[in-house]
User: Fold LacI family DNA-binding transcriptional regulator from Paracoccus nototheniae.
Amino acid sequence: MQLGQHFFLEQNGRGYGDGMQNGAKRTTIYDLAVLANASPSAVSAVLNGSWKKRRLSQALADRVMQAAEQQGYAVNAQASLLRRDRSHIVGMIVPKYDNRYFGHIAEQFEAMARARNLFPVVTCTQRDPDMEFDAARELVSYQAECLIATGATDPDRISAFCKASGVQSINLDLPGSGAPSVISDNFAGARDLTNLILDRCRTDLGWTGPLRFVGGRRDDHNTAARLSGFLAAHAAWGLSVPDDHILAYGYSAQTAQDALSGFRPRQPTGVFVNSTISLEGVVGWFTQLQDGRRWVRYGCFDYDPFGSFLPGNVGMIEQDVDAMLASAFDLIGHPTSAATRILIPCRLRAF
Assistant:
């Protein structure tokens, strides 16, 4: 379903869809009734999803849908919604598709929604707060029953609009104060990954020293939580981290590579990478080190299977997407305090 798609309005049972016969006559439910050997009311019940309640047969429903498909017939979504108590639509905005983590979230969201007899609509907003708000407004206009804002840059603006519209909203991945939030336990995950990198630096290189933290933004919730876990692990090792070791200048691969461009280790060192996006830049830097590669161990918060094949990579943090989404779906349809924050444990994958 594409938001903004044009549908013809129904008037007395005609013009109900956008199907055309021979490019001249718009298909109506009466045309479909003749083709499917059914009554117009039965055709309408099949098209609006109420045929099971009316105890119509699966065979009849199949005939109607086959006829509709052959005629290129599209149900008038907005008019149909007006006749139903529920739309069964659940929407999600995501910041990026070209990232395994967010791609996995979008894919699993669709599968879980359909398994619950909900219709999923996903749109990518490129970390642009205005695009996020426009997408939320469009989803609400299609009577989405719930909107899940994933990694939103301004979740409170979205939740305030949804509340005013009488639509439930849930924050995923990044929290907000205007709606319940389901997020990863970034602090514990970062602490565990930092401990792993420090341990491998000591075991493999005979070195114990402060790591460098690369990627993200200090004012971003997830970066701040991971940085806290990173620093807590160092403190437990009796180590302090110089401020110039915190290279949190953004998430892009090029930004991460540029942040390390002047660093050419001639002794053991370790790097905490804040996302797989930043990891691309760190690997670009690493491959240019030549002899210096043997001195470096690093790990990444976020998981991709290719990571286990990268030289120097000792482990990754895998966020539990299935558990996060299951918790979010459990909230749908249930009044929940906006202050609710559900932390989902992460998995440490050591290589």
